[in-house]
What we know:
The complex is a heterodimer of chains A (580) and B (189).
Chain A lengths: L17 E2 H11 L4 E4 L6 H6 L6 E4 L3 H15 L3 E5 L3 H5 L1 H9 L4 E7 L15 H5 L5 E4 L6 H13 L5 E7 H5 L1 E2 L15 E3 L7 H10 L3 E5 L1 H5 L3 H11 L3 E3 L14 E4 L6 H9 L2 E5 L5 H4 L10 E6 L13 E4 L2 H11 L7 H17 L1 H4 L9 H11 L5 E4 L3 H9 L8 E2 L10 H11 L5 E6 H7 L3 H6 L4 E7 L4 H9 L15 H8 L3 E4 L2 H13 L4 E6 L26
Chain B lengths: L8 H4 L3 E11 L4 H11 L4 E8 L5 E11 H12 L4 E6 L5 E11 L5 H13 L3 E4 L5 E7 L1 H11 L4 E13 L12 E3 L1
Antiparallel strand pairs in B: 1-3, 1-4, 2-3, 5-7, 5-8, 6-7
Amino acid sequence: MTALPRPSSKPTPTVAPRIGARAVCEALVREGVTTIFGYPGGTVLPIYDVLREFPLRHILVRHEQGGAHAADGYSRATRGVGVAIATSGPGAINLVTGLATAMMDSVPMVAITGNVPRALLGKDAFQETDIVGIALPVTKYATVVMDPDEVPYAVAEAFEIARSGRPGPVLLDFPKDVLQLETSVPYPEPHQLRLPGLLRPVRGDVPEADELADMIAKAERPLILSGHGVQIAGAVDLLLQVAERTEIPVAHTLLGIGNMDETHRLSAGYAGMHGWMHVNKMIQQSDLLIGIGCRYDDRITGKVSTFAPNARIVHGDVDRSEIGKNVRTDLGIVADAGDLLAALLRRLPQSEPRAAWMAQLAAWREVSEARSWHGSGAWREGRLSADYVIDQIGEATNHDATLVSDVGQNQMWAARYFGFRHPYRHLSSGGLGTMGYSVPAAMGAALGAPERETWAVVGDGGFQMTMQELATLVQDQIPVRIAVLNNHRLGMIRQWQEIIYDENYHSAELLGPDLLRLCEAYGIPAWRATRPDEVAKVIAEARKAPGPALIDFHLDEAQNVYPMMLPGKGLSDMVEGASE
Amino acid sequence: MAARQTVPAGEADAVHRRHVVSALVVDRPGTLNRVSGLLRARSFNIESLTVGSTHEPGRSRMTIAIRGDDGHLRQVLAQLERLIEVLEVTDLTQRERIELELALVELEPPKDPAEQATVSAALGWAGGEVISTDGPAWRVRLVAPPEAIDRALEALRGHGLRSLVRAGAVAMAAGTTTTPITENGATRA
């Protein structure tokens, strides 16, 4: 009983019998997995009993949520499929936040859980839970594998589901005895997979690009809004070629950061709720908005009835169900982002520069950047501001580090001020907004992409949600540099309460541990900075550490993220802040 | 270019009506849960949902009757279609279709000729047949389009209707072969 309609007869056994646990490990190796994140427990011990036999590096996390986020970070940084393992009951349930995070952001992951033996299923056995039932709405697919002979197919199909089309997490639940019993079924070849219900994008030319090319030819103020789908499709080079061919500026969503070098003349920048005003103004003034690999989600659009009022809206996405979901679409194209961009390139002649439109962008950009906290130069007055910290991390790492942000103000500061130049460097929980994501996800990213420096940028709130993973960083000497943007507050909560709730602050103040003493206890080198002139120095010191390191940046407590789109408002109606 | 109203696609054609959806799905534990869970998550109330085997082993056919706005429903059906367990989704609402429902009714025998006439007429509207007269009450089966069954049941209320079991609508496209909503942009494995 797996995934799929079973074949009428069982596959012919052609390999030496091995227990289900070995079949699982063998399948992981066959899928190219080298690193897995897990936490043992009674029902998955059969896997741990044989793990040593396989070339799989197991990272023992301190909480299963950390394992799920680490697998997610590993996946995003490597473009592979991250793997997390947990035991039944509480272990499995602790994965759920990580699964939902990956689901919202289309991250391919395979989660493996143990469950009680088949004979005990449904009997409220010790550490039993219906994890498949719990995981259904937060996974692309979830199933319990009830037969040892199904193990090889179940794992192979899980990987195929996770990474095909619009990627997402898959959960496989193995009753303990299925892991202990033998099977002779071989690992399937790709053509043997039984996935009749798996939607796969049609590859190749995209005929609807004809109509889009016509629309581009007629547009005076076109704008591309590029999302995560561009990087998932591996299409950043094609995006750059299309932008340069058509002379159309490119905005990006939060997860679209890295689609284009932000210093490129055609890069408009980060759009949306806390995006740059000049980008949002372009969306509102554009006469043709071309969304590629994005969802037009509420953090981009605000009030949809006022979104892009002058534009014909084009939406190209690999997932048909996204088109027309949030905004009215004048032209919807179901296609892989790379195929769509390639189809456009084949159809479009070289365009002249759009001088007037780009001059407008430049004028808006000048105002917008000058008005930002960064532009205002608060840091020059000796106040330690988050934008300055982020900017300095960007400078020190030549804008080439993997930067894993958490959720809240820190996330928006990182998105606005790091100055990303390359794809797959910015990792963040964009859709679900999972506080506590950054430290464990950075752990996975650092292991997946060790050739780059990895920074976690996190507020003092999110840090305290998953800081147990400091021990994992130490045990496996994973070189994550953690920048805690510490305002002793839940900063975004404080900001909302200040602006929307008439300064009625409640539960926004946050006591935390002395981070330097905490790091001392863990054996992690740590520094503190309270003034702008200390920032470059502590970053340089932290970069020298061979393993994990932490910097506690004590921020000016009153700093808000501007601009800000208030609930129920649109992109033309944003609060630009009091800091100018 | 003139400004135009931008509204979500789901509200752009907000005709609220009863939809009849046919879905070909994989026959395995969890499929029903996935389908009904998605509809619940989108706050749709299912009027009826039937599921049964098809001519192909391992495949089931669901008929889902549901009320909703055309645009919202179209988007939800696209979400249904991307479920791994779902092979095809077809909205039969605006197509010629054959739609029938089975109802079993426990009915007291008519007390007089007038009531007899009422009952006979009601059964006539809904393909009714008395299938058992054992015991103090009859067992009657109705096979008809759901609205005909509604009408017959309305007439039987107060004329001996004691209890009722309805199977939910099953539907099939009439004329041409049922075409799934999968169009350009995706293929099945």
